[in-house]
Amino acid sequence: MAERGAVVEGLRAYRMIAGMWVRSGMTYRTSFVFTLFGNLVLTGMDFVGILLMFSQVDSLAGWSLPEVAFLYAASVTSFGLAHLAAGSMPQLGTRIRDGSFDVLLVRPVPVLAQVGGDRFSLRRLGRVVQGGAVLGWALVAADVDWTVAKVLLVPLMVVSGAAIFVALFVAGAAFQIYAQDAAEVQNAFTYGGTTMLQYPPAVFGKELVRGVTFVLPLAFVNWVPAAHVLGRPYPLELPGWAAFASPLVAAACCALAGLAWRTGLRSYRSVGS
């Protein structure tokens, strides 16, 4: 009960902090609109690269353009939701180095909620909107034999993928408590992870695919559930039920990230004077 109360308190604090930053960001509405549009266009450049590639080839490792677009959109939308919620986590190392992290520790508010809600920005919605638009097109253009299970699996995949990426943001923040100047290491797994998942697993070596399936389970963001939706072979010949395991994988990742965060926070010893 005490842990549940702490979670509720943390969510309440996060909502209040995020709301404060939203009100601040909406003070200059024209600037906000232009920034949101610019963010949308900038994130769309990755998909333009895929379109240019498919202007020269008919398929990529046997995957058609709509199928690759489905992978791309699922990865980008999931990451966009996670980035919207926890995109400030990589800045924790800077807070530790300049001493401002200590200020968060003395406030009567969960530290994770403060770090996650810090500088919350709706301009990050550009990535979500762009990914959602491509996802909508891919679902119509791809040759999918739709069933009730597949229809339900699409939103489940996106939400579970977002939770997995949030867990990566939190785990990376916990690592920065020890390493401090490690934002680029964290970005390699978050930004690098979403870029990798935009392409079919057959493009990569089997050892890498095994690593992102059984060690850092990014494959459950989109590769595994998308294989079921598109009727493609599962990576590494996984069993059929693996397509529906994303929520369990996400829950496990969040639990481990929470443990890493609490461990890191207990070991923090300030930067001194």
From TrEMBL:
It comes from the Bacteria. This is ABC-2 type transport system permease protein. PANTHER family: INTEGRAL MEMBRANE TRANSPORT PROTEIN, SLR0610 PROTEIN-RELATED. Pfam families: ABC2_membrane_6. The chain crosses the membrane at residues 32-57, 69-87, 128-146, 152-175, 208-226, 238-261. InterPro entries: ABC-2_transporter-like. Keywords: Membrane, Transmembrane, Transmembrane helix.
